[in-house]
Amino acid sequence: MSSIKIYHNPACGTSRNALALIRNSGEEPTVVEYLKTPPSRDEVVALIAAMGLPVRNVLRRKGTPYDELGLDDSKWSDDELIDLMLAHPILINRPIVVTPMGAVLCRPSEVVLDILPGAQKGPFSKEDGEVVIDAQGRLAK
């Protein structure tokens, strides 16, 4: 069993790139397709706490009912926002990766490198061709 978990949406390029970076480090993570298997309230609360982010920073706007629900309004409490994430898992921004080194919202995908225990095993380019890890195994930026 891997010590790395990714809350993943296979339709999301950023999520696919983060997963590929994890695999490029030689790890095979536990993949949670959170739209098919949503996390529990306790899991969402724990993930947000582990990332050290305000609840609002974990909300996804694009391609979600965010605007339709009026989530820009400051009237929503953190508990209410979490309830809405549970009712509409697409509102949970992704990918979220948890390793023994911490938890992060991987936007951009290369943020995952900050919490991977192992080095990248080879060069890596994102799906759009952007080089992230060069041929020498170094961060390209």
List keywords for this structure.
single chain, 141 residues, 4-stranded mixed β-sheet, two-stranded antiparallel ribbon, 15% strand
In CATH, the homologous superfamily goes by the name: Glutaredoxin
Low-pLDDT parts are: none
Beta-strand segment tally: 6
Assign the structural class, choosing from mainly alpha, mainly beta, alpha/beta, alpha+beta, or little secondary structure.
Answer: alpha+beta
Q: Determine the CATH topology.
A: Glutaredoxin
Helix content: 25-40%
Domain unit count: 1
Strand order across the biggest sheet? 2-1-3-4
What's the architecture, going by CATH?
3-Layer(aba) Sandwich
Give, in order, the helices and strands: EHEHHHEEEE
Indicate the radius of gyration in whole angstroms.
Answer: 16 Å
Description:
The protein is elongated. It has a four-stranded mixed beta sheet with strand order 2-1-3-4. The model has no long low-confidence stretch (mean pLDDT 96). Helix content is 26%, strand content 15%. It has helices at 13-24, 41-51, 66-69, 78-87; strands spanning 5-8, 30-33, 96-99, 102-105, 124-125, 131-133. Strand 3 (96-99) and strand 4 (102-105) form a beta hairpin. It starts with a strand and ends in an 8-residue tail after the last strand. The chain contains four helices and six strands; from the N terminus they run βαβαααββββ. The protein has one domain (5-133): 3-Layer(aba) Sandwich (Glutaredoxin). With 141 residues, the protein is of the alpha+beta class.
